[in-house]
Amino acid sequence: MNLSEMKAALTEGGIQLTKSLGQNFLHDGNQLRRIVGGAELTAADSVLEIGPGMGPLTEQLMGQVGTVFAIEKDLRLVQFLQQRFAERLEPGKGLELLHGDALGYLKGTVRDWSGWKVVSNLPYSVASPILVELALAPQGPARIVTTLQLEVVRRLCAKEGQDDYGLLSLLVGLHYEAKAWFRIPASCFFPEPDVESGCVVLVRRNPLLLSGPELQSCFVKVVKTSFSQRRKMMLKLLRAQFDGPRLESAFMELGIPVGIRAERVSLGLFVQLTRKLCGKAPD
Ligand code: SAM
Fold first, then answer.
1. Half-sphere exposure (CA, 13 Å, Cβ side) for 110?
2. Domain of 268?
3. Fewer CB within a 10 Å sphere, N or C end of the chain?
């Protein structure tokens, strides 16, 4: 679907786009192909697409994989897609379309996503919570390829000591490695977004850095507490949540300076600290 087809369909359907739903539609064929290329799809793949909009990405995905499951919040677009892809919506024909809020769906549904890939042009206003929800799911998708605000892409790729490093880098980084990213010019969207955009490829770690729900939720607690006040020393913040002597010996054994702030501590060190604070004590 090129730009003039998109504009014509919107006019014909009487659809006025809603800014709060992040309705900036991608119409550039090269960028769509690059995004799909990042997913390294095979015919056996199942793909979750969040926010299909008018379906430019959905169309490309359906040509390459077994199943596309798309969740769209805007009923007008769901109805548009039902017409556009009527044949593919028949049982066993490769497309399942759900009208709903993807974040609510992910939070409220326990599902094994391990055989799935996510390929999306996410609505920017809810992109970070959706990513965290997917990334921390017990059985998360094998790969996530998504278009985001460039600032969020930078956070996902940032390492300790860099300006963009923080909570999102660590919460997503625990289970996913950012393998690649590229910039997408604003002119590739309709309407053009006010912010810069990029696409990132996240690949699930195998093996995971921490296994088991207890250690993973402890990691989330350690990281959230450590970043709760960015200017404060991490050890002081953690004392409010964890046993003081155990904390101090963990810092000493791992060689973490007591005066350090969270933004200078690597993912690897947060993982080791989690094991020391919440792992089973040695016999
Ligand atoms: N994939 C299309 C494209 O590339 O042109 C549309 C992408 S547009 C950036 C984001 C889409 O997400 C819109 O269609 C919007 O209606 C939908 N959306 C916004 N919030 C949503 C939510 N919470 N759950 C599901 N879809 C949502």
1. 1
2. 213-278
3. C
